[in-house]
Structure of IclR family transcriptional regulator:
Amino acid sequence: MARGSAGRSALSRHLRVLGAFGPLTGDLTLSEIAAAAALPLSTAHRLVAELAEEGLLEPVGDRRYRPGLRLWELATRTPGAAGLRELARPWMGVVHARLRQHIQLGVLSGHDVLFIERLSAPDAVVNATLIGARIALPLSSSGLVLLAHAPEALLDEVAAGHWSRPTARAIADARELRARVADARRDGYAVLDGAIHEASRGIAVPVIDSTGRVHAALGAVVPIDETPVRPAIELLTVAAAGIARSLEATAGGAAARPGRPLRPLLATSRATLAYFEELGVDTVLELRAHDD
Amino acid sequence: MARGSAGRSALSRHLRVLGAFGPLTGDLTLSEIAAAAALPLSTAHRLVAELAEEGLLEPVGDRRYRPGLRLWELATRTPGAAGLRELARPWMGVVHARLRQHIQLGVLSGHDVLFIERLSAPDAVVNATLIGARIALPLSSSGLVLLAHAPEALLDEVAAGHWSRPTARAIADARELRARVADARRDGYAVLDGAIHEASRGIAVPVIDSTGRVHAALGAVVPIDETPVRPAIELLTVAAAGIARSLEATAGGAAARPGRPLRPLLATSRATLAYFEELGVDTVLELRAHDD
DNA sequence: GCGATCCTTCCATTCAACGGAAGGTCGGGT
DNA sequence: ACCCGACCTTCCGTTGAATGGAAGGATCGC
């Protein structure tokens, strides 16, 4: 590198540039990117050009950029996100059809829940969740569930840290957080009222496989005191078990085969399944139709 | 850099590593990655460690890696893929409900169609398409449609190049390709029989906005001579127009506002819409429920 | 026409990336 | 118990790719 050279690896600066695009960010100009990424303009200029060259950014009009196709294409190979999402959707659909409220799936990422999928309804309550966005663990019922099943060290870290409190009912301190997490651990679910918005109640259960590993939290956001909680928990629990089974069918199925494990295919027709087997693709599982 | 140093920018080597994971690839070990990316082992070792550090790869078990959450999270901000997909799904659902065959959405990427979304049915015909995978332009009806509306230079390039011919009915040469593309340009749709598999017929129409820009191709894969073609084309055309309108409502709507354009939100409840407006998020459009 | 804003190019400096080689670790075969 | 082969990890001297300040353009608004 050169000059005082600041940062860490080259990779981290490329990511700083991509990180300039947040969940609510629109197309950005070069200087907006430079500012958001805290990079010198000439450096940003070069990085943006490289990223655009590789298709990770794409030019829009003649002065703006947005994240590009290649990024999405690569992300498609993310079993922990894209894969889990695809596999969970049918189960989420079942819950959604009954509850007609927000149904969402979140995974643990750092000190946040990263939301991977959400089904909504026009008349559902307020819900700050966006697909691809994060909520601090203590602010969400999904977060409590994930925390309940994470290594103790994570709870210690989070409890020691700070979190915003959008409403007065949000969990206030480490003591309360630990109590709520203990509840979630004991009950196998979490209910959290008005933590982000006064009117909303979160209900979440873990997606937990037969080895005890927790892959995600499946949650609903419902109006407080309108939707009966008990039946919702039961619906969510059944769906979470279904998701866990689907996960094991793919991951386990693929890993169990000798030879190179291939990503199992989902959601395709029987005829297509036969086609891929003919092509010599080792592991192809048909789970269920994508959309039914 | 150092030593003979081979390649291009640092970015390109990181991408070579990520590129080792294909649409059908499972979790890979370090040496598999090194081999697939054609990188020296020690280099691959360092790159993989960096990528894992940043969450672009995640360790699985104790010797394998897979693409990580952060990659998916960043890809979430891709209006041309993730955004288009979300926005198109309701329209695709309408077509799917009628045809009960594969319905798919593809965008132009290099000399391929990159498929972004697909709805299937258990009894649908053979279909090689995978979400996140590519098909060469001349092999797919969606490809013909995209080629028909792309700059002439692209057609020249593709026609001059080579493509595989999985079946005897696949387009054979540049002459035939140009003729089929001309048809697609004239008709506003493309029908292609048995190009990838003997039993399957592709039907595709462009998603074309009011400025004439083509954003994607919307297609169906149906059994040859079973599904009436004309009504399918009409269904697809209506849906494509719907997608185009949704696109303009978001992109146009956001871009038209003064101040920083924000990514419009989709698929949320009315109450949530109000919530975001209150928070000062400039541009929030509610289009329709995510799942209905 | 003039200033402000944003983008592009240039280039001397220098340190982060490179990768061959050597040393571990692990497991399976005998 | 021992060896062997397959992987993975660490070390480190070399060097050219990345860096970013500065200067020069392009464009827009007033």
Observations:
- Chain A is about 45% helix and 20% strand.
